[in-house]
Design brief:
Number of domains: 1
Number of strands: 10
Strand content: 25-35%
CATH superfamily: Pseudouridine synthase
CATH topology: Pseudouridine synthase
Helix content: 10-25%
CATH class: Alpha Beta
Shape: globular
Distance between the termini: 38 Å
Structural class: alpha+beta
Number of helices: 6
Radius of gyration: 18 Å
Largest sheet: 10 strands, mixed
Amino acid sequence: MSTPTYIHPVLYRDEYLVAIHKPSGLLVHRSEIDRRETRFALQEVRDQIGQRVHAIHRLDKGTSGVLLFGLDPDSARAVSRQFEAGMVAKQYLAVVRGWPDEAGEINHPLSRQYDDYEQAPDVIAPPQDAQTRYRRLATVELPYSVDRYPQSRYALLALDPVTGRRHQLRRHLKHLSHPIIGDATYGKGRHNRLFTELFGSQRLLLACTRLSFSHPVLGTPLTVVAPLAEDFAAVCRQLGWPDSVA
């Protein structure tokens, strides 16, 4: 076994599961989406702990936070079924453009998205139900004109995806007209560039901070929590939000 080059903080580990703090910019596993990428969480965690791991769920490449693996196929399948059944409580933090309502729920069906290597069906299925709850934790107004206003407003949101559609949070926030900062696909390039210029941020400002589910063998409730990655937390500090993040 080769010596691991990258060491990821372990948030939880027992004989059935391991959870790490995935950094932004790391793919969970090899994908046709980015053939040039040479780093993958699956292989790096395997090398780090010295045993095979099995993917349970995925985070987008740009998203940081709690990433969970099974240490045997049965445990991985058991928790994966909880994700599929909507039995896993998930919390994310995101920095978005504008000031959404203090709390709300986004009910907006989403079409299924396919990987490049997947064969899309001849008959396109109708959009799938998708639901996201959110709470506004903090706001800021910066003295920079990006759109048609003399100032630019941003907010920190806590997000609870009730369903688990692909890119759900990013697509739902775009639908709400409050896209996530740093999102090159669904976001606003001018706002993304402002955060790079002001704060040196070159990442998607979205993080999975908490997963709660039932242990696959013991059946007991289990919650895994991740602090914000330093590059995300640094932006929040510069925006004056340290208490909201804590």
